[in-house]
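Hello everyone,

My group is preparing for a crystallization screen and wants a predicted model to guide construct design. The compound we'll soak is zinc ion. Before spending weeks at the bench, it would help to have a computed complex in hand. I've included the protein sequence and the ligand's SMILES below. Output in structure-token form would be ideal because that's what our pipeline reads.
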Amino acid sequence: MRHVVLTAGFAAVTCVAWGQQPISVATPDPAIASALQNVSPQQIRATVEKLVTFNNRSTLSSMETDLKPGTGINAAADWIESEFKRISTECGGCLEVKRDEFTAPPLTGPNPRIVKPTKLTNVYAVLKGTDAAQASRRVLVTGHYESRNTDVMDTHGFAPGANDDASGTAVSIESARVLSKLKFPATIVFVAVAGEEQGLIGSRHLAQVAKEEGWQLEAVLNNDIVGGDTTPGETEQDKTAVRVFSEGIPATATAEQARALTNLGAENDSSSRELARSVAEISAAYFKPTTEHASKNTPVGQPRSHLVMQVPAFHPVLIFRRDRFQRGGDHTSFNAEGFTAIRITEWRENFDHQHNNVRTENGKQFGDLVPYVDFEYVANVARMNSAALATLASAPGAPREVHIGTGGLDNATDLSWTAPEGAPAGTSYEVVWRPTDQPDWTMVQPAGQATSIKLTTSKDNVVFGVRSVDGAGHRSPAVVPMPTTPMRTFTSGQPARK
Ligand SMILES: [Zn+2]
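Reply:
Good plan to model first. Here are the tokens for the complex, ready for your pipeline.
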């Protein structure tokens, strides 16, 4: 096996198809890069400010009859629908705009957050894939458009919800605006849900609809609180970082399946976690570190282009847990139905500016207000989402039936897989791996169009994954191979090998 060390940072890995090599940053797709340039902080600001004008977007406000016209969640839902339709008009009707409307029954248990039958409306827009063989594949971006203040049952008091979660809703709408100008083989769904604060009611319904209707949902990106809280005096906020949460053991795993995954050492490789890794890799291709150059005062004769420092680019930080302590989010609804879903949230939250009545106490401002949202930051989050959606909707689906041979004792590694459904001509595959104590893939071995490979690297020492690549270098998330022979659990007194 030849080892190749690449020195060029942005060389495409596909150019060296004959050996294993360290993973390098992929070459950006020019069409996607250009779409990301269209993401507009001003447009995002306009969306967030418009959502705030509905005064209170409480999910429960849908049932109130005494609200001022143009306020409450029903008016907000109508406006989001009109916004998707406006975007669709601009792309020649490329979006199918839909409402998922239902009546949620009262909840039971202590402090129920829905006490009477309540109308909920999720609004979404579908950008249908252009490849008939792949259009049933879907990737989805969502945020919750409802808001709350201190009292989660309050339907009348001001509840701006600028950060939580007009910011995430704006990411869905802005992603629709910039990506609807392009065409993708697979389908992208842009979503705004209600009922998050009432207990993930809206997203649960949509996830169940997706399951019942047989959506081939491959990725869900949930943006909740992505405003990059800007509070005077705050020193811990990081405007270059956004957190990406992903579950380890899937929520739907039975106790037996969870035991099998831990036996295998695959507890860190759920499809949601592979999606998170994929988002991080895609981001690295589009957010290149900027550089600063020697100052203008550089003495004559000294090179002015001398690199003096690197400014970190905007980047996701992978958090290997389902969500923050004591908190939940809409990705969980999709995880609960067995879908691949992650949560995206600003680096550091300010809890005075969430779930609070707008008020001043001892000179301190409370409330989820527009001035605490950084629209340049939300724009970067929207770019990261759009890059991920566009790349995944361009890439072939992930390989299926990915297996690792475990029939006999062997230091080598035999991997096999089958092509994803509807794989376009020219689809090839890559094997990626990492040492077991590393968080992300470190090595790659292109496999060409073969659907099996033998490697000398021992399966006992690393974690392997297999992913699909199209001719232009768009990659699917990796899939961790399952053993051809079930992993055995050994206990004292049993023979270690029959
Ligand atoms: Zn929220």
